[in-house]
Amino acid sequence: MSTFYFVTLFPKTIATYFSESMMGRAVANGTLRIKIVDIRSFAHNKHRRVDDYPYGGGAGMVMQAPPVIRAIESIPNHDHYPVIYLSPGGKPFDTGEARSLAHQMAAAEGLIFLCGHYEGIDQRALDRCVSVSYTIGDYVLTGGELPALVMSDAIARHLPGVLGNVESLEEESFEHDLLEYPQYTRPEMVDGVAVPEVLLSGHHAKIAAWRHEQALKKTAAQRPDLYRKYLAEHPPKTGKK
Length: 241
Known about the structure:
five-stranded parallel beta sheet
């Protein structure tokens, strides 16, 4: 069974997310396992303090290396699992990275997320424990829990048995460098706007062609970078002379 380990100062944030929806079902049915490691449990002081002022001065506080190291190394076979640190300076995370990490996780049967806070974590802990750093975008968040949840959700979708319908994953945005086509459901008419007629035709080839065309238009309008990438990898077919 694949296990996500979250090394964090805020266990409830993680536990709440994995108690509901698709991820909650995956945990409940045993497809996925979640283990939360509270860094404060590894603080060797009366007040369970895990941060201190930065050497050299500066604003804010820095998480201390010893409790972080102890927390990670308390995980059984921790050296067998990739350790991911969430940082604005990390490698950009996308669906390709999600697939790659899912394969690594399936092989190792585990993945560790290190969630930082304040002004970051003492570099000595990062140098000792972290395999790779990732960012989910060019902005700063209060802590690493939200990025870790974003990444774990995206990764889990590529693990066997997490999604009930494999076709859902194959048709989602970014799986083929295109955004997903527009979706419609009942009723057929909403405030005078009807469902596109082709979707009611029952003609699967025409529906597939329409959806592909809509995905191309949407990607070109909203993500021209992805559209250019798609065209480079799927050049238009030309007829033989």
